[in-house]
């Protein structure tokens, strides 16, 4: 097989696995790359970029296949991509992929067309899945199209400098020496934005824990918790610890963070990252569920509680383009889980303490509506307007509400609340 044919086959294999196994694309690609450590940076870049691009065009490719009465399976979508987007001649595709005669007629039908067609509905052109369209239209109104278009662009590559081990100036100099142009992020004080993507192996500071990969929006959510040195903090949905690490650094390694989650694997990864970052003020706690007995035992025990709730992830569609086509469990299941988590984790907040509820979703049901329902049901808590706690952040009402189109971050929502003294 020629190198060009091998690249195409790799893209098709990865796309097929993402579609068929219903696994997140980053998990599929990480597993694939682990078995191919000898693959060159350029090949890796081409394969991953094309795979993600393909996922960002899935609705349009499906529209074309349905128009010609073909099954929208991974192989047909890929063939359509090669003709419509890469403008590859049928002969070349046949030579590289060795496709069967029935595919030949599909290639001929697609030949001469472009990926967009005037008859495509707007939701297809904007790759907006039916399950999220009504909410996103309600949320954005006239801004629906620009916001959806922004979600179709590749995300910026952001780092967060770990102030326990490095300074932003030092990290910027190191990047410049490595030939990786970068600049400070506009809003987050420890953030760095790379001008272009690069192979992670090129940056030793990642291995030494001097920097972490973290979107600027995620850094800002951690900042809103305002964890102080000496505080007792719970990161209730800590996952692999992105925000835990940012808060631990903010606390200058003093005080205590309990990183909780129901997923043992993610907490294990969190512990590894904590060690690598040189943090000593974090412990992990595996919960059986959001209403684990531990929560009751520790009620009113913490200065700060962050709930980075499991959500639809609509704000991260730039980064995880496959998730828009997964409505696993449905939105109703997620919103019910979010309100159970809020009700339970809020018990941990002491009088005068702060509760931050955050999602990487842009759907009002998962955000404003959750907070409003919680405040109504738990009058001991009151909302602290964003202008009071973070006047320098973009003000869009009482909440932090970031979108890729407006702030060039992932879409993030955060509400700051406090438990009023009895
Ligand atoms: C948005 S992710 C967290 C990301 C993480 N905070 C970060 O910054 O890297 C949501 C997390 O909630 C966890 N989760 C799901 N259901 C939960 C529950 N019932 N109680 C606590 N955590 C839960 C998931 O395992 C997942 O790790």
TrEMBL record:
Q: Where would I find the SAM-dependent MTase RsmB/NOP-type domain in this sequence?
A: 147-420
Task: Choose any GO biological process term that the UniProt entry carries and state it.
Answer: methylation
Residue numbers annotated as active site: 360 (nucleophile)
Q: Does the keyword S-adenosyl-L-methionine apply?
A: yes
- Keyword Heme in annotation: no
Molecular function terms from GO:
methyltransferase activity
Which InterPro entries does this entry report, sorted A to Z?
Answer: MeTrfase_RsmB-F_NOP2_cat, MeTrfase_RsmB-F_NOP2_dom, RCMT, RsmB-like_ferredoxin, RsmB/NOL1/NOP2-like_CS, SAM-dependent_MTases_sf
Instruction: Give one Pfam hit by family name.
Output: Methyltr_RsmB-F
Keyword annotations for this protein, in alphabetical order, are: Methyltransferase, RNA-binding, S-adenosyl-L-methionine, Transferase
| Residues holding S-adenosyl-L-methionine | 261, 308
Membership in a protein family: Belongs to the class I-like SAM-binding methyltransferase superfamily. RsmB/NOP family.
Question: What protein name applies here?
Answer: RsmB/NOP family class I SAM-dependent RNA methyltransferase
- Protein source organism: Marivivens donghaensis
């Amino acid at each position: 097989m020629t190198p060009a044919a091998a690249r195409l086959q790799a893209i098709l294999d990865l796309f097929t696995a993402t579609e068929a196994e219903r696994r997140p694309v980053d998990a599929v690609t990480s597993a694939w790359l682990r078995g191919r450590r000898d693959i060159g940076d350029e090949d890796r870049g081409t394969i991953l970029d094309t795979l993600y691009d393909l996922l960002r065009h899935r609705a349009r490719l499906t529209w074309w296949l349905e128009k010609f009465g073909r099954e929208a399976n991974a192989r047909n979508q890929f063939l359509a991509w090669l003709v419509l987007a890469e403008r590859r001649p049928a002969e070349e595709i046949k030579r590289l992929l060795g496709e069967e005669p029935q595919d030949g007629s599909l290639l001929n039908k697609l030949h001469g067309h472009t990926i967009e067609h005037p008859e495509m509905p707007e939701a297809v052109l904007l790759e907006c899945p039916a399950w999220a369209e009504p909410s996103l239209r309600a949320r954005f109104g006239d801004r629906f199209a620009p916001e959806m278009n922004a979600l179709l662009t590749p995300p910026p590559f952001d780092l967060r400098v770990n102030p326990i081990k490095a300074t932003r100036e030092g990290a910027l100099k190191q990047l410049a020496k490595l030939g990786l142009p970068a600049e400070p992020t506009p809003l987050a004080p420890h953030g760095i934005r790379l001008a272009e993507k690069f192979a992670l192996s090129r940056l030793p500071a990642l291995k030494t824990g001097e920097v972490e990969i973290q979107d600027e929006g995620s850094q800002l959510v951690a900042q809103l918790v305002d964890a102080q040195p000496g505080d007792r903090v719970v990161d209730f949905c800590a996952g692999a610890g992105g925000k835990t690490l940012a808060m631990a650094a903010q606390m200058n390694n003093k005080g205590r963070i309990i990183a909780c989650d129901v997923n043992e694997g993610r907490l294990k990864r969190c512990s590894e990252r904590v060690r690598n970052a040189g943090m000593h003020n974090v412990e992990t706690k595996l919960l059986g569920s959001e209403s684990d007995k531990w929560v009751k035992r520790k009620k009113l025990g913490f200065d700060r509680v962050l709930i980075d709730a499991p959500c639809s992830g609509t704000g991260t569609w730039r980064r995880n383009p496959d998730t828009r086509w997964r409505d696993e469990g449905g939105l109703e299941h997620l919103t019910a889980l979010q309100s159970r988590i809020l009700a339970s984790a809020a018990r941990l907040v002491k009088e005068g303490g702060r509760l931050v509820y955050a999602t990487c979703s842009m759907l009002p049901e998962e955000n404003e509506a959750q907070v409003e329902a919680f405040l109504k049901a738990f009058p001991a808590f009151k909302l602290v307007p964003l202008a009071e706690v973070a006047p320098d952040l973009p003000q869009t009402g009482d909440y932090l509400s970031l979108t890729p189109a407006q702030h060039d971050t992932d879409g993030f929502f955060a509400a700051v609340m406090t438990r009023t003294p009895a």
